[in-house]
Amino acid sequence: MPVDPTTRTSTSASTGTATRTETITSFTHGGATRRAGARLAIIGSRTWRRLRRRARRMRGWLGETVTPAGWIAVAAALLGVVLGLSLAIVEWLAVGLAAFVLLLIGGLFLLGGNAYEVDLGVLADHVVAGEEVAGDITVRNASRHPVLPGRLEIPIGAAVADTLVPLLAPGAVHRERLLIPAQRRGIIDVGPVRSVREDPIGLLHRDIIWAKRHTLYVHPRTVGLPTTATGLTRDLEGIPSRVLVDDDISFHAIREYVPGDSPRNIHWKSTAKTGALMVRQYEETRRSRVGVLLSLAAEEYAEDDEFELAVSAAASIGVRLVRDRREPQVVVSGEVPEGARRVVRAVRRLATATPVLLLDDFSGVDRTPLMMGLAEITALTARQLPDLSLVFVVCGSVPTLRDLREATRRLDPGTTVVVVCADPTARPGVRRVDDVLVLTLGAIDDLRHLMSRVVQA
């Protein structure tokens, strides 16, 4: 029958100079057995968890490494050897051994993938649509032994470029030139590079991903435009207008005081001469506040080329305004779910700190059926930016004159509106519809001439 541990304490004293206390703890045979069993249970639990983790890693490695053809070879090797030995069929045994040898040889081709040092260098971060950008892929064997030939996969947007890496001696370097076509506007992710090792038959396959990724901005094509000075809004740093106000910096005349005038505007010399209070009057100074609105609604464009022409036109106007330090507000349609269109309106402002940032944002815009239409973005812009004095509205050829009138009427009545309609099939021209100038743009090169006519107007 097991008993509890016992504790014995003894105390002895000599001639009052020293005292010794001794504690002895002992366990019976039953307590030692339980303790050993607990230790074995803990060790077994830890070992089981460790084996499970290794099994999961092994299962994941096999799933990534063995191809469907490789699993057929594994099945052929197992069945061939088992059936050949159990049934004494030489042909089955030969098939199993051959499949096993193929798997063994394929495993040799997977060696050396970690020995690579891969560097992806792209020579440019920005490119104009229709051009090419060059890059370099550098592969170095960082190990102390030769590495078998391999293959690199470089994701370029939705496509994948392949390049072969030859047998590399220790420390050897292989460089390959990479040309990235940028035929259309957009944002292209280049990388990360994957080193691929596989056997010639395709039984085993292993990828190693190198983390570096490069983002390439493909800008829309733009043209240089003349400086514009149209559109006026109240600003202390602007140009004097004919509107008279009581407080500004451009002096106009002296008039008689009326109740409500600020005492600080009293002109005391004139008051002393006339014997009546006289105050200063000023001309309102103004400066243009310009906005560029681009509709991204898919139904307002007849084709993709028409939409790209509209994007190029909006980008050209925005870049000109940014370079003129006009601090423009560039607004594009926002995306709204179909079920929320009745209650939700959304627009997005693009970055205008520098021309490059603006073009980077234009690289990522796209038309979809969920984007807000022309009438919605003009109405929302009028509420969010009520002080705009000049607005360029860029759209496709689908909106009619009635649609354009309806959209532009939602802007402030004192705002000068210029509508740029992109239509590759139409002849370029300028016409006035009510108080709105309508520019019909057939090609991006026509925008320079049309904008010159707007500036002169």
Automatic annotation (TrEMBL):
Q: Which residues cross the membrane?
A: 61-83, 89-111
Q: Which UniProt keywords apply?
A: Membrane, Transmembrane, Transmembrane helix
The answer on whether this UniProt entry bears the keyword Transport reads no
- Cite a single Pfam family from the UniProt record: DUF58
User: Which segments constitute the DUF58 domain?
Assistant: 254-423
Stretches the record annotates as Disordered: 1-21
Protein name per its UniProtKB record? DUF58 domain-containing protein
Protein species of origin: Pseudoclavibacter caeni
